[in-house]
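Lecture 7, part B: from sequences to assemblies.

Below are the input chains for today's worked example.
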Amino acid sequence: MRLLRYFLYRVMQMFPIALFIVIINFALIHMAPGDVSILLAGEGADPEYMASVRQSYGLDKPLYQQLGAYIGQLLQGDLGLSFRTREPVIGIIAERVPATLLLAGTALVLASVLGVVIGSFMARRPGSALDTAVTTLSISLFSIPVFWLGLMLILLFAVTLRWLPSSGMMSIAGPREGIGFVLDVAKHMILPVISLSAVWLGQYVRLARSSVSETLAEPYVTTARAIGFPERRVMTRFALRNAMLPIVTVLGLELGLLLSGAVLTETVFSWPGLGRLIYEAILSRDTPVIMGAFLIMSFTVMLAALVTDLLYATLDPRVRL
Amino acid sequence: MSKPILHLDTLRMVYNADPGFLSRLTGRADPPVIAADDVTLELHAGETLAVVGESGSGKTTAGRIATLQERPTSGGVLYEGQEVTGLTGAALKAFRAKVQMIFQNPYDALNPRLTVSQSLAEPLMLHGLVPRSGLRAAVLEMLEAVELRPAESFADAFPSELSGGQLQRIAIARALIIKPMVVIADEPVSMLDVSIRSGVMNLMRGIQRDTGVTYLYITHDLSVARYMADRIAVMYLGAVLEEGPAESLISAAAHPYTRLLIEAAPEHRATAVKRNRIRLPGDAASQSGLPPGCRFHPRCPLAQPICREKAPPRAALGGGQTASCHFAHEVKKTGLATMTTA
Amino acid sequence: MTPTLVKTVRATVRSWPGVLSLTVLLGITAAALAAPILSLPDPADMAFDLYQPPSSSFWLGTDNFGRDIFSRVVWGARVALMVAIGAALLSILIGSALGAVAGYFGGWIDGLLSRIFDIFLLIPTFFLILLIVALFGASLPLTIIAIALTTWPRSARLMRSQVLTLKSRVYVQAALAAGAPHWWVIVRHVIPNGIAPIITDGTILMGMAILTEAGLSFLGLGDQNMVSWGSMIFEGQRHLRLAPWMSIAPGVALLMLVASLNLLGDSVNFAMNPQLRTRGGAPKRRASVAPPKGEGPATEETPILQVEDLRLEYTVGNRRIAAVDGVSFSLPRGGALGIVGESGCGKSSLGSALLQTMPNNAELTAGNVRYDGRAIILGGKPVVEGGRSRIDALRWTRIATIFQSAMNALNPVTTVRRQMMDALRLHRPGISRADATDRISEVFDMIGIPRSRMNAYPHQLSGGMRQRAMIALSLILEPELVIADEPTTALDMLIQDQILGEIADLRERLNLSLILVSHDMGAVAESCEVVAVMYAGRIVEIAPTRRIFDNPAHPYSRTLIGALPSLTGPLEKLESLPATDTAAAAAATGCRFAHACLAATDLCRKTTPPAMNLGGGHVCECHYAEDFAAETAADKREVRA
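Predicted structure of the full complex, as structure tokens:
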């Protein structure tokens, strides 16, 4: 019950943020060089559609009414038509979401689990040569441009060794159902997931390492040792449990960055997700799709932040519910 | 009695009085915190008044208001009979030249990027009291006055090179370098080791003897208050419960709370007789909800029905001693033995 | 240069990641600056040597237009650095100005700005930049501005939190109380002390900016008129199979620049807070010894704890500091020993040595500890029997501890009851849930915690209740010996008195042996039969409580006692020590108190004083102990007469 109230409170806090994002979008459209109706409808749209866009966005009315009309359109789920395909943007995006979720989700799980394991292992011996080496290595990992790492992986595993496919999500003539399909997709996923998660692994190793070593220095850990808990239980029950709090927060906050990494990765591997869509939209100056994708990404990140908050609240009794 | 040099008149200070719209809507507003409820203190020139209380008693708030670092929600501050509560600009600056402050934490008292002499020269520069060419000499003189010798080497040191006792002496020097009339000292020795602490206390007493400066000495330790002060005021939950000359307050306290404080103080000089501890009902006090009636009654071993209903008036007990207790006269006479049978 | 700045620079330059990153950074910067004057081929010059692999004439090969890649990489460094410096500078300028205003003045400005910071945290900024560049056209200045536009909230948040802490710093408060105007305080006190982390974070910002620009260029949104590493990879991608060197070289350059920026930030951060690198960790494995032969059975007379010549050393950097420097005492069963001393005297280190819970940078270098006649430490090494350390077999079932500041000594995410339950079941695996609950209730009753508070989390309890919960936790397994380290520090007077009362009560009722480590002479005087005074790692005097307070023989003990103001006794002028460092004293030869002692002679400064036995369990390490003991006794008589 108290959790529900907390949830509602957080949801209410999200409204002004959502509004702000919409206003940014709106402001950018109006500030950008060129005719607003062309930006919204796409270049070379037929006059009839152009007129209907003008009509529905109220482009001949004062700005605040235009904003109202814009928000009204968004609330109806109308993100406009893609200028390239003439299909509703919302539909095009929805089509691409699962592939991105699959890629980003797998990479997130892999990087965070591995990161926490390696990081907490390093936290057991802070300042050792291994710790310094791993810290330096993780810094180098997240300094790699993710798209370049993808290219290098393709060069090695697809071009030179010919072990793995270099692009797409499935083989052209491959199976479309059953275990064969799953394996085929999995095979296509390996390289993009590695490049995306490698970069984030560096981040999470460092995060987990500092967070766990910080908690290991806390007095309650000394208490646990004085009580006689074996070190493994001290680690899981006392250190990790408390160290998870900052880790969860950062995970939630950095989802936006992870998504931007996903876009670049998808571009390299021709992964048929949102990122690929955005890339194609940029190439063909399909502004309605770019704006739609920005909005959808923003709302996804907000949602993730909300979930993180709730997770945090259940993990930490000190959060006032 | 002469007119007080500094007079805090029925101060009240409430934080979080007005929660935001969203917090109120969702019922998540922080409860208001009453840091000071009813504080009246009079400081007489050349004297030391010690304010004693636990954490949350409002003693620090009283000190911050006395230096106008914070403005009270209601009530006033009078300096030499003049209302100063609302001062701003040049008038405020002139007031600050007269009323200075010494803080609790010596390790944080000085800007780590400035040398001691730069820190000490700052108040002189701000108030333009000494020409630029005379700053160094004034700083060295002040360092001598707080017994940091050789003054030259201390002047050029950075704070990170000094010990807690030395830092607090410099903090005292900074407060006194512009020759204020009143110094508010907020627990100036509580973070120092015992053997260093007494040196700082002796220094402050010596300076008072030499310059006649007035102290408002804030402390949680009654024995320190007794050593430093002419008069003692005991605060609890934002109000002064008892006030009086140091010796009579300690030898014949008229408020049960003062009595309990005296009993609770561990006394290494006493003979090996184990004291009888009274198991107190109730727990540490909270500032967010004041109990009705007497604010101390939930923890008072002598509480009577009237204490739960009616706030006690301030009773004058002669010799300048006052106490806010329904049974002040009885407690002054017989201590905590009063009415234990009731 | 302040000493802190010197230390930071020195520590950065001394760590190998610091040196490495600085070298790479300087190299890249030098190359970028010198690009126009180096006799490189024009990066835009097309030639007929298409797709040339790296060779002596084309160091990094040529691209699909025959352009020299090495030259393009060097020129690309200029773009990368321009983006990095431009975006970071802009972001820090805007961010720290707004952050400082928000943090310093608070109120509605702060509310509004904090909201904006929060919003930017939730916006996927890369997409926003992408949208801006897509809408307004790709150009380098626009890219830099767009990046700064999304990163300034990061600098602002950092500056705001810096200012918020700085605002409550005493020296800022003192400057305001001295009459300094706000601009003065901000310029002189706040900014110089708050800027360091923001500059450090600047290196991270620079790395982020470079990667963002590279990402944009890779998506085809780069400035067409500039040579950027990102757009080089963008072009190289299409020729990956034919000319992989086209993408390899700019990527390596990107990686090196960004990694060295991040590494530098990290090294500076560690140099400023060296404890970040080494604090925490799991207890390290220490050399152990087998139990000695012929340990007789314990009798009633066997002391419960016997400590001989215990030494503990910390290693800090290259220095070794002896925190406990040859401590011996013995505690009879049921007895209570108070260990008093001032900060840095080694009393808490002694406590951690007895429990063997000292941090990894501490080492027992010598000494024996016997518990109930059985050695648990021999020659500084833990005694292991049957594969298990002897101390582990004693933990909590026989030796328990009460730590100071129970807020942090209890696990904040677990209820108090749960923590007791865990401890109980760890040592009594067979215990039933009902029995365990009964035992917990029993201890709670004993210590005066209402049962309604059993399921509370530590943060939900008041300071006094929390300390009670800590005591309850220590008693849950009915130990024989409790080591209490400052159990009442930071509590209010009335609560402090109550807790001491509880401890004294329990001791009597449960026949506990007690070691009370405290800086509070009064607390020790009332709770213990024997008091040991520690100074600079040694027990300089130990005696029955009344004896040490009425008739102290060591000048240091005398000062300590004389420095305490009395509440009910006669008002005397307090004694004090000069404000010097105790750490310096430990290094000196002779008596370690000589530097501060008013009665010190040449003998004291040259020769370490022996332990003088004054009879009746009174031992004092002072050359003149007998004289002082006699003198104080005489003084006392005079006062009484």
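Note for the exam: Residues 636-641 of chain C have pLDDT under 50 and may be disordered. Keep this in mind when comparing with the next example.
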